[in-house]
Amino acid sequence: MVKVFVITYSTYGHVNTVAESVVKGLEKGGVEVGRYQIAETLSDEILTKMHAPPKADIPIIDPKNLPEADGFLFGFPTRYGTTPAQVKTFFDATGSLWTKQALAGKPAGFFFSTASQHGGQEVTVFTSLPILAHHGIIYVPFGYAHPHLFDNSEVVGGSAWGAGTVANGDGSRQPTQKELEIAEAQGENFASVAKKLAA
């Protein structure tokens, strides 16, 4: 069976909530899912000062295990329009895979969380594309494949680049039902692409 890794970094839990719906969509699409999180680089002292909750009980991904998957969906919050330092550290540790082109030809997509509607959901993915290009990983955008992405009656995270949520600056807003439905649809769509490429 085709295997897709869902790999997240989440400080306050919003991305992990979206990931649950992504996983649901992948499983609905008929692929095996491996669920992982990226290691934290901040100290417990700093995280306490940030009022961050304890990390979810999800296995830490070791970069050397990436070749075991047929595809990847990465989820993380934006930091000034790019990846958080934790995610950058993770990708910086994939050099040995790059030298062997061990991930070339595998598909990947993204989902994300921002503090505001214009907090960088699209540009965060855009600034991550060079990582995929250097590995030869095939970027799979979501497109406007769900009607909620056309909904202008309320704040709805996500775009053609992937599912998303808007958390507010204080993290008080949780992913909405519409955002979670978009995430599930992205998972199901990605499963279809991953299966075709694996064939």
Automatic annotation (TrEMBL):
GO CC annotation: membrane
Domain of life: Eukaryota
Domain Flavodoxin-like, first and last residues per copy: 4-190
Gene Ontology MF, one: FMN binding
InterPro entries: Flavodoxin/NO_synth, Flavoprotein-like_sf, Flavoprotein_WrbA-like, FMN_Rdtase-like_dom
Family designation: Belongs to the WrbA family.
Designated name of the protein: Protoplast secreted protein 2
